[in-house]
């Protein structure tokens, strides 16, 4: 694991953060056009590598390179605990969050194996010493300073020398936070957004939906304010993911989002700006039932659909070899002219 770099951006107020979320740099369209031009010369029918072609162009457009690279792939996992766990919304005790952070450090988690396969570095950032947020059925999950501090921490974790960032999380109870945040951002009730999380049964999911409905009724301030919604219903690790995805945008680093929780954490950027998540791709569709709807609201199409419901950036890590394959084709294939292959009539 690597030690995160120190803070370079400090969001001192919600207005500061809001400004950073709406004043966003665009991709490098010259690089995108150069990649499309080379793609058209390669020995295959135009478009026959499907979404792989678009992925190469996306990588290069955000890296600002006509020849994209995947030398420095970094996975960052943020961990946090949730006060709403006391409402009985998870089948696991909150202590598992810290225990899994220990497991990440010891190399024993799924993500340690997947990061190695992806040839990616892995950084784990425990948030707020793993103290829980407030129970958001009673009070906002975070105070404004605590929320901004968590966003700033996530922002500072992103190393500018990164070719691709994979973002993920660990936090018992956070599928409830993600579901409540999704409802706050896109509408609907607890029933629409509550799912099995880390293994609830049907009765548990029904109870989780009631808890979410109570929380939505408790708060008003989130309406039409996506950042306020993230403060009220999110968590420290979710705020940090928001900060990391935002930092990547300002540094023009392409991002692979992970599952349901990661998507909900990043979703305020989509609500605040039509192209707020253009530098990201959704790595997979989680088995969490509402991820399908959330992806649709966010206007993103998952790359993989493997029935994963783990979190900890596992889906993002699994999509890295797919990007490496796309890039290998783009950089390694011969052109029609070089290979002496006839072009179509
Ligand atoms: O992000 C997802 O798609 C996802 C789906 C199901 C479970 N999780 C993980 O499970 C934990 C949260 O589950 P729960 O039931 O305690 O809310 C948390 O550590 C997440 O990383 C994550
Ligand atoms: C064991 C365990 C591992 C996890 N990894 C991410 N979320 C998790 C939740 C649990 C319960």
Largest sheet: 5 strands, parallel
Helix content: 40-55%
Give the tally of structural domains: 1
Question: Can you say what the CATH homologous superfamily is?
Answer: Nicotinate-nucleotide-dimethylbenzimidazole phosphoribosyltransferase (CobT), large domain
Overall outline: globular
Give the end-to-end Cα distance, rounded to a whole number of Å: 54 Å
The H/E string reads HHHEHHEHEHHHHHEHEHHH
Bound molecules: nicotinate mononucleotide, 5,6-dimethylbenzimidazole
Total E-strand runs: 5
Adjacency order of strands in the biggest sheet? 2-1-3-4-5
Radius of gyration: 20 Å
Structural class: alpha/beta
Number of helices, where a helix is a run of at least 4 consecutive DSSP H or I residues: 15
The percentage of residues in β strands lies in 5-15%
CATH architecture tag:
3-Layer(aba) Sandwich
CATH class bucket: Alpha Beta
CATH topology: Rossmann fold
GO biological process, one term: cobalamin biosynthetic process
Family: Belongs to the CobT family.
EC number: 2.4.2.21
Keywords: Cobalamin biosynthesis, Glycosyltransferase, Transferase
């Amino acid at each position: 694991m690597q030690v995160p770099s120190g803070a370079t951006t400090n969001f001192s107020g919600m207005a500061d953060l809001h400004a950073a979320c709406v004043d966003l740099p665009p991709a490098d369209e010259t690089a995108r056009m150069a990649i499309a031009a080379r793609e058209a010369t390669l020995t295959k029918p135009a478009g026959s590598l499907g979404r792989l072609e678009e992925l190469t162009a996306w990588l290069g457009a955000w890296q600002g390179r006509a020849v994209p690279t995947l030398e420095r792939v970094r996975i960052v996992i943020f961990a946090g605990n949730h006060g709403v766990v006391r409402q009985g919304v998870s089948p696991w005790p909150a202590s598992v969050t810290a225990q899994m952070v220990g497991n990440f450090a010891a190399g024993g988690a799924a993500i340690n194996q997947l990061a190695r396969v992806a040839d990616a570095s892995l950084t784990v950032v425990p948030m707020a010493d793993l103290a829980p947020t407030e129970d958001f059925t009673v009070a906002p999950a975070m105070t404004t300073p605590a929320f901004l501090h968590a966003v700033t921490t996530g922002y500072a974790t992103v190393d500018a020398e990164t070719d691709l960032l994979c973002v993920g999380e660990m936090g018992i109870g956070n599928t409830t936070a993600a579901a409540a945040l999704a409802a706050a951002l896109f509408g609907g009730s607890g029933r629409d957004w509550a799912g099995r999380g880390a293994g609830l049964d049907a009765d548990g999911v029904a109870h989780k939906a009631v808890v979410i409905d109570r929380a939505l009724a408790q708060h008003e301030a989130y309406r039409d304010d996506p950042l306020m919604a993230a403060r009220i219903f999110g968590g420290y690790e979710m705020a940090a993911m928001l900060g990391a995805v935002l930092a990547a945008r300002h540094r023009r680093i392409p991002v692979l989002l992970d599952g349901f929780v990661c998507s909900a954490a990043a979703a305020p950027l989509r609500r605040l700006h039509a192209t707020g998540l253009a530098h990201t791709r959704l790595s997979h569709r989680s088995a969490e039932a509402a991820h399908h709807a959330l992806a649709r609201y966010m206007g993103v199409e998952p790359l993989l659909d493997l029935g994963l419901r783990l979190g900890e950036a596992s889906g993002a890590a699994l999509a890295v070899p797919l990007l490496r394959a796309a890039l290998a084709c783009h950089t390694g294939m011969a052109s029609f002219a070089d290979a002496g292959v006839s072009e179509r009539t």
